[in-house]
Amino acid sequence: MSVSVILPTYNERGNIVILIRNIIATLSKTKAIFEILVVDDNSTDGTTDAIKKAFGRNRRVRVYIRKNERGLATAIWHGIQKAKGEYVVVMDTDLSHEPKLLPRMLRIGNDKSMVIASRYIHGGGMEDKLRNVLSHLFNIYLRKLLRIPVTDFLSGYFCAKTSEIRRLGNSRVKIFVGYGDYFMRLIVAFYRGDGKFVELPSFYRTRPYGVTKSRFFAMFVTYTKTSWEIAWAHELR
Predict the structure, then answer these.
(1) Please, are residues 24 and 60 in contact by the beta-carbon 8 Å criterion?
(2) How do the domains of the chain map onto residue ranges?
(3) pLDDT tens for residues 111-137?
(4) What is the rounded distance in angstroms from the CA atom of residue 10 to the CA atom of residue 200?
(5) Local confidence band at 234 (pLDDT 50, 70, 90 cut-offs)
(6) What is the distance between the alpha carbons of residues 87 and 80, in angstroms, rounded to a whole number?
(7) What is the residue-wise DSSP string for the chain?
(8) Mean pLDDT of the chain
(9) What CA–CA distance (Å, rounded) separates 48 from 42?
(10) Cα 130 from Cα 109, distance rounded (Å)
(11) End-to-end Cα distance, the chain
(12) Rounded-to-integer distance, Cα 74 and Cα 64, Å
C-alpha cells in the first residue's frame, strides 16, 4: 500500500516539524510506502524554511508554496492532485490530529470506504470542552439534515482512495472550496457515489503553538448556510 499524507499549512512553524517527525516515525513502523506533501499558502512566519531545514534531504517530504492562491480547501485539492500514493490522508497541521491513528486508518481503508477520525464516537472528544459541546450539537444537526450515517462532518482528518477523491473533485460540483465546509460536501458526494464510511475515535488537543485561524461565529454562519445549500442540492438528486 502507498499513501500520500497531505498537510495544508499557513503560519505553522511551531507545529509542522513536530507533526512531520511524528508522521514519519509512525508510518516507518508500517509496511506502507509513504510521502508527505506540505501545501503552504506562502506563510510569513518561516514555516517552509523550518521544513526545509529539518527535512531538506528527505525525499519523502515535499513542499509546495502557493503564492497566488489561498484557502484550506484549495490547498488540500492541490495536494491531492500532486499525490502519488494509492491512498490519501488529509490532516490539520496544528497538532490536533493524532498521527498514531494512521496505521489503523490504512489497515481498515479500502477502495469503497472513507475512514474518518471522529470526535463524536466513543473514545473521541476535544480538549476544549466548550467547542466540543457546540461542535457536537452542530454535527447532530448535520446528521439529521443530511441523513448520512457520519458523526463528524467537520473532522477533516480522513483516508480514502486517491482516484476516488480525484474523481469527485473533478466533477462539475465544486467540493474543494472554502474552509472546513469542504468536508461536508465531500462526504455527501462520497455517499452519493455509494461510498461507505468507517469512523475511528479521535481526541483533539488544543494547539500548543500559534494562533487558530478559526473564528467560531463566522464559521457557524458559513457552515449553516453551506449545509442548507448542500441539503437542497441533495434533495434535487
Answers:
(1) yes
(2) 2-235
(3) 789 999 999 999 999 988 998 899 999
(4) 27
(5) low
(6) 10
(7) -EEEEEEEESS-HHHHHHHHHHHHHHHTTSS-EEEEEEEE---SSSHHHHHHHHHTT-TTEEEEE-SS---HHHHHHHHHHH--SSEEEE--SSS-S-GGGHHHHHHH--TTEEEEEESSSTT-EESSHHHHHHHHHHHHHHHHHHT-S-S-TT---EEEEHHHHHHHHTSSS--S-SSTTHHHHHHHHHHHTT-EEEEEE-EEPPPSSS-----HHHHHHHHHHHHHHHHHHHHT-
(8) 91
(9) 8
(10) 32
(11) 35
(12) 13
Whether this model's pTM surpasses 0.85: yes
Homologous superfamily of domain range 2-235: Spore Coat Polysaccharide Biosynthesis Protein SpsA; Chain A (3.90.550.10)
